[in-house]
Structure formats: C-alpha cells, structure tokens
Amino acid sequence: QLHLVESGGGLVQPGGSLRLSCAASGFAFDYYTIGWFRQAPGKEREGVSCISSSDGSTNYADSVKGRFTISRDNAKNTVYLQMNSLKPEDTAVYYCAARRTFIQAICLIPGSFPSWGQGTQVTVSS
What one-character DSSP code corresponds to residue 39? Predict the structure, then answer.
C-alpha cells in the first residue's frame, strides 16, 4: 500500500531555510511523480513543486521559483524540498503526493494526485 510521510517542518524566521522530506514506501517509487503542495489556514490547497520519476523534470509555482528546490533520491525513496529565503506567506501545512505519470501542465494541480501524506507544518515568523 502506497505510504507517504512528510518531515522537516518547523518554526523559522523570515529569510531562513528548511528542508522538507517525503519518505515513500509500499510502491515502486522510481516510477512515480511526486508533488509538494501546501495549504494555509482559510485557503485552498495549492501546488508548490513537482518532480518526474524518469528524467528529473520539475515544475514550480511562480511564488517559489528561485527560492525552493525539489530533488529526489530514488535509492532512499525520498523527495526533498529545499526552501530558502522563507517568507511569512510561506506558512502552511506542506503535503507531498504521488501520481503515476508526469504531466508538467497538471503536476501542480492537487486534484491530479490520488495519493497523499499527512502533512508537516511550516511556520515562518519572527
């Protein structure tokens, strides 16, 4: 059974950095696209970044381009989200999700991912 567990969240000051991890088990991780999403209080869930299974193709939301970097280590069944220059508006619960194929046009759409982790809280505040 597909299982995703996020970790690495916490409280950080504006301008700081965090690295989130998404550990996967129970499926052929190498063949799955992984996405990172976030949901702030009172807001809809939004796409942050995604990475393909094969050639490492990625996509980023405009709001995080140049600040966040997604990567994956297939040997460890883990995807990372390095978040730098964090802003208060990055505060949210961050989720990772998995889908079988990489389609850049839709990989930031939450509804296109059938499998989800439980999320990790990121709070950016002074």
Answer: E
